[in-house]
Amino acid sequence: MRKLIIIRHCKSSWSNSSLSDFERPLNNRGLKDGELMSEKLSLKISSVDLLLSSSSRRTVLTSKFFIDKIKINNVKYSDDFYHSDHNKIIDKIQKVDNKVNSLMLIGHNPGLTYLVNHFSNIQLYNLSTAGIVVLDLLIDSWKEIVTIKNQDVYWMKFPKDYKS
User: Fold this and answer.
1) CA–CA dist 26, 112 (Å, integer)
2) Do residues 5 and 134 touch, judged by C-beta distance below 8 A?
3) Could you tell me the residue range of the domain that residue 136 belongs to?
4) Is 29 helix (H, G, I), strand (E, B) or coil?
5) By the number of CB atoms within 10 A of the CB, which of 3, 21, 35, 119 ranks highest?
6) Domain for residue 125, yes or no?
7) Structural domain includes residue 43
């Protein structure tokens, strides 16, 4: 069995219009949600073999919350993961070494929403910022990821789940 943890980056700032989309940092809500959601996930998952993240500023900043709270054995940032569609993400997952049993992805929409909908038994309209979906996949190899459909969601939470 393999564990796939899908996380959308935290809320980013639009306050500096001179920054490119790639360079946008997190806003105050994003900082609070990153702290909250990484803490909540750390209560469910204590370690991850590999974190694959977009190399955009907001995804790198988001990743740091999870790196601080969860033991992550290997971290890789990639420009190729920036705004990738779900098919490109699946291609990347297929290339993951089979020594990796737990894989965390931090990226962007709409690719991540489509990825969740492709693999799971739920249909999200939108994986919100700082949203997390964890799937337990009944596969022996990451190459088999293309065969996955209608998987039960192990855990799914959004920042709004913790706010009153």
Assistant:
1) 19
2) yes
3) 2-14+24-162
4) helix
5) 119
6) yes
7) yes
CA pair distance 125, 18, nearest whole angstrom: 31
Count how many domains the chain has.
1
| Nearest-angstrom CA–CA distance, 155 and 13 | 28
CATH number at residue 88: 3.40.50.1240
pTM over 0.70: yes
Encode burial over 138-152: b for 16+ CB neighbours within 10 A, e otherwise: ebeebeebeebeebe
Is 19 part of a structural domain of the chain? no
Strand ranges (E), the chain = 2-8, 47-48, 50-54, 71-72, 75-78, 102-107, 132-137, 153-157
pLDDT 10s digit of each residue in the chain, 164 long? 999 999 999 999 999 999 999 999 999 999 999 999 999 999 999 999 999 999 999 999 999 999 999 999 999 999 999 999 999 999 999 999 999 999 999 999 999 999 999 999 999 999 999 999 999 999 999 999 999 889 989 999 999 999 86
